[in-house]
Design brief:
The protein is α+β, with helices and mostly antiparallel strands and about 375 residues long. Helix content is about 50%, strand content about 15%. The protein is built from 13 helices and eight strands. Strands 1-4-5-8 form a four-stranded mixed sheet. A four-stranded antiparallel sheet has the order 2-3-7-6, with no helix packed on it. Strand 2 (about 130-135) and strand 3 (about 135-145) form a beta hairpin. Helix 4 runs parallel beside helix 9 and helix 5 runs antiparallel to helix 9 (about 235-260). Mean pLDDT is about 90; it is low at about 5-15.
């Protein structure tokens, strides 16, 4: 059974409002509509806010309750069982709230002064646009791509090269909805419901207190009294949050495959008795569980491990390996399901497209993760 079908596996509610499980069921119900619209169904976008994803990492002084990465991984995976796009947007809403918590306090107050439930989109890698320094701030012009969930965002984080060029870190700027335009450019094979459209900005003034160097994100907040989730360096958690939706997608794919192959719910009951089908079920479910253990371990390191190079490298390694495993699972399920699962009406083909699109993200590439891990191990051995 999946988490959606078995309530004992995961707490059924968030501490904020709408239960996470209810948001997951709603996401699954509207998954096909979100795909067709190429953005989340409005009811699903609202449910993510009610379930607490935008406020998950918002500082307590602005009404948030800085959460843990372990909680976020499990909640995002639950959403992903029904709609990978909803899970992707939920993970990024939480992640972008964490990034915004690195702004100067006055900038944070601009965003969360009326409450913590503020969906934020971002396009900070790679930097783009043109930045001109003016008294009290910056003038920003340009175009940025792949801003997931931007159609339902109230604020936007954008990165632009520092004026004058050189080797300085790009500057991250926070803009309210009125200061940017959304271009309908998202035409991807997978994650279609994420609405990862482009945004343009035309000569908007951004006050200095709503900006920061991107280096601040990489290092994490240095204050000893800052919440743990704000002190961790960005590389420790970036790949983890991109990987969590794949865990849910693989679980959803296994449930969809089981229904097509034998009318079962994923526990084997009703599946044909041939050895090949049994092996697909056993191997796929075991590998999903193994990937879950990798991601859960990475989340525990993010929440508790020393903030040094080796935990960062281990998290990069484990997230990349987990996603490779999950893609292999969904690929096996898709192939063994034959033409039956290739219909547009079958969720399995959507999960198959989604995990392949997700795995293409730069933060989940195995080669850089392997290199970083090897360097860290060598450094520890000196």
């Amino acid at each position: 059974m999946t988490l959606l079908e078995h309530p004992s596996h995961y707490p059924s509610s968030s501490p904020y409002g709408l239960p996470v499980r209810a948001a997951a069921v709603l996401g699954a119900h509207h998954a096909a509509e979100s795909e067709l619209a190429r953005r989340l169904h409005p009811a699903v976008a609202g449910a993510l806010t009610e379930a607490g994803f935008p406020r998950h990492f918002v500082p307590a002084e602005f009404g948030g309750e800085p959460g843990t990465f372990a909680e976020l991984v499990e909640s995002v995976a639950l959403l992903g069982e029904g709609c990978t796009s909803a899970a992707w947007c939920a993970a990024l809403q939480a992640a972008h709230g964490r990034l915004a918590a690195h702004l100067p306090r006055r900038g944070q107050a601009d965003i969360w002064g009326s409450g913590p439930d503020v969906p934020i989109a971002a396009a900070v890698v790679p930097p783009a646009g043109e930045l001109t320094e003016e008294r009290g701030g910056y003038r920003l012009t340009g175009r940025w791509n792949l801003a997931s969930g931007v159609d339902h965002a109230d604020w936007m984080l954008l990165a632009a090269p520092e004026p004058g060029g050189g080797d300085r870190s790009p500057r991250v700027l926070a803009l309210p909805r009125t200061d940017f335009l959304v271009e309908d450019t998202w035409r991807n094979s997978g994650l279609r419901g994420t609405g990862s459209n482009s945004v343009t900005v035309a000569g908007v003034f951004v006050p200095r207190h709503r900006t920061m160097s991107r280096d601040v994100l990489a290092a994490g907040r240095p204050e000893e009294d800052a919440a743990r989730c704000h002190r961790v360096p960005f590389p420790l958690v970036a790949s983890l949050m991109f990987a969590a939706p794949a865990l849910g997608a693989a679980r959803g794919a296994l449930a969809a495959w089981s229904r097509v192959v034998g009318g079962a719910s994923g526990d084997g009951e009703g599946l044909p008795g041939d050895g090949v089908t049994q092996q697909v079920l056993a191997r796929s479910s075991a590998e999903i569980d193994a990937a879950h253990l990798l991601l859960r371990g990475a989340a525990e390191r993010a929440d508790h491990a020393p903030l040094d190079r080796l935990p960062v490298a281990r998290n990069m390694r484990d997230a990349a390996v987990a996603v490779e495993m999950l893609v292999a699972v969904v690929e096996r399920l898709f192939r063994s399901g034959g033409t039956r699962v290739q219909s547009e009406a079958e969720p399995l083909q959507r999960f198959w497209r989604d995990v392949h699109a997700l795995a293409g993200h730069g933060a989940l590439r195995f080669a850089p993760a392997a290199a970083a891990y090897a360097r860290s191990v060598a450094s520890e051995g000196r």
